[in-house]
Amino acid sequence: MTVEEFEAFYVQSVGRLTGQLYVMLGDLQEAEDVVQEAFVKAWSRRRRLDRDSGPEAWIRTVAWRLAVSRWRFRRRTADAWSRRATPSHAAGPGPEHVVLVDALRTLPAQQRRTVTLHYLCDLTVEQIAGETGLSASTVKTHLGRGRAALADRLKDTEQEAGSR
Predict the structure, then answer these.
(1) Which of 36, 46, 52, 136 could form a disulfide with 1 if both were Cys (CB 3.0 to 4.6 A apart)?
(2) Are residue 79 and residue 99 in the same domain, yes or no?
(3) Which residues form a coiled coil (predicted)?
């Protein structure tokens, strides 16, 4: 089909195909959407449409399949949402957690990462060395300096809280 033939085919058949899909689907907006999408797909294969038997049948079939795909997607999405447990209300972090996070932020990035991997992720010195690419002695140095810095920072915070 040439561009002009395709345009003429579109003008002649879009209303009829939309009406047919509307009857099949029961939803005019959905019918309009899938018919338009089917025509977009047909545009890229317009040269072969005239050789196929019935370009209108091809459009109708593609539009129907698009509608079925959308139904399946919506059903899977609805199923996933219904399986999702409603989150229970979680309490916010306590003041001690906020103080600890603030103290951790004062550490240099590598010390903070090392301390987090060791104390929060419960990794050994060797595991941290393997994950970070640092030597075991460097990991131990970061842990020692990080603990000392945190102890000083947390002690300062305790003293500030006590003087209030």
Answers:
(1) 46
(2) no
(3) none
